[in-house]
Write a structure and sequence with these properties.
five-stranded antiparallel β-sheet, 8 strands, three-stranded antiparallel β-sheet, 10 helices
Length: 280
């Protein structure tokens, strides 16, 4: 690695990235992460294979095998797999880094750049770091935390340099309607609660029709259907990563009636919760 890319030259010694999480995910057909936001963590994603649809705020991007994705903290985002080309991704979530040449907040992305680029610098290194650490996580290695932070540092530098080299013009822009973004924040924080358009209208002092129309225009889904999709996404995660009963999962995501939850799940996913758990 050239001296220009040495972490010690780019990152301040006391402000190198700390690893928050590292995971590999096969994004199956019909499985989306749901709109969410991280307050502190930045996600660095390598697309191992397939096609990933990326939504950041109200903008849509497409990533293919060999692309890298940077999802900065404070940005609402969602990932979904292409139905025709299911994807596998590796993700490294980092926080706490500071670059020497940046005043104020340090970000991976350059101003006016898009969050998806084809990796051009250190491609083999990026691929190897993700794969090797994914393997390391399955082993009882006492150095896993130390190695994880070292890998996070290298990936942070490599991602930043790739985005600095990228010549693609920026298309991302802030949402024009700050009120609708506040509605999205509220729905993400309270999706387990009983939410109606009338209640949103009172809370945000705007008409039902305005909230419904503007939210759908910005995010491509109505507020109520967004809540349902968010609940279904949480249910999918619980079904594949926990042994909770259907009653427990339904209650956790905001449904008191398990039968109603199962019918909604069937309608939106195409199979019952139990069948989904067996499949995945």
């Amino acid at each position: 690695m050239s001296s220009r890319l040495k972490a010690s030259c780019i990152l301040k010694a006391a402000k190198r990235p700390a690893l928050c999480a590292m995971l590999s995910v096969t994004i199956r057909i019909g499985l989306a992460s749901g709109y969410h936001m991280h307050e502190n963590e930045t996600e660095l994603i390598w697309v191992e294979r397939g096609t990933v649809e990326v939504m950041v705020n109200a903008n849509k991007y497409v990533a293919h095998a060999g692309d890298i994705i940077a999802l900065e903290h404070g940005k609402f985002h969602m990932l979904a797999s292409s139905d025709a080309d299911p994807a596998k991704t590796f993700t490294c979530a980092v926080y706490g880094f500071k670059f020497h040449d940046v005043r104020g907040e340090s970000l991976i992305l350059e101003p006016d750049s898009v969050p998806v680029v084809h990796a051009a610098l250190g491609v083999d290194t990026i691929r190897t770091l993700f794969r090797e650490f994914d393997t390391l996580l399955t082993q009882a290695n006492p150095l896993v935390d130390i190695l994880g932070n070292l890998i996070a540092t290298l990936l942070t530098v490599l991602f930043r340099e790739n985005f600095k080299l990228a010549a693609r013009p920026g298309k991302d822009k802030q949402l024009k309607n700050a009120l609708i973004r506040e509605v999205l924040v509220y729905l993400n924080e309270n999706y387990r609660e009983k939410i109606t358009l009338e209640a949103l209208s009172k809370r945000f002092r705007a008409s039902v029709s305005y909230i419904a129309h503007e939210f759908a225009r910005e995010y491509g889904v109505s507020p109520i259907n967004y809540v349902i999709e968010r609940r279904i996404t949480e249910a999918k995660f619980a079904l594949t990563t926990t042994t909770q009963s259907l009653n427990q999962i339904a209650w956790h995501i905001g449904y008191e009636n398990t039968y109603h939850f199962s019918k909604l799940f069937q309608r939106h996913v195409g199979c019952s919760p139990s069948e989904y758990r067996r499949r995945f």
